[in-house]
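User: quick one, fold this
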Amino acid sequence: MPLTLQEAQTVIAGAHERAGEIAALVTVAVVDEGGHLQALGRMSGAPPLSARIAETKAASVALFRRDGAVLRAMRETSPDFFAQLQPALRQPILVGAGAMLIRRGEDIVGALAVSGGTAPGQDDECAKAALTALAP
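Assistant:
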């Protein structure tokens, strides 16, 4: 069963709630399992560029089927692969903090990414809160 719009909005609300608690202004993007944007929520005052960054990070995670931390490690150990891959794709690849897969059981139903945090770990913290908000 695919991720619903209501679930995508729950993900965004969970991340925004945590962002408010830690005084961060973020944008959250939720994509489906194919990396297509399903929902985007930009907090008032979040950097304008954070919307594009969040969407690109979320799509990258969905297409690779790996969380952002794993993708970052892959890029560090295989920079030549990523350098060759980028020109071949129509979708830019952006590896960064705050990008995670959304699973339903063992199935990947989408991905989310948070962008805009200014202190280390803020994007990751908000992304984790977003997944927690979605948990049954």
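User: anything notable?
Assistant: The longest helix spans residues 5-21.
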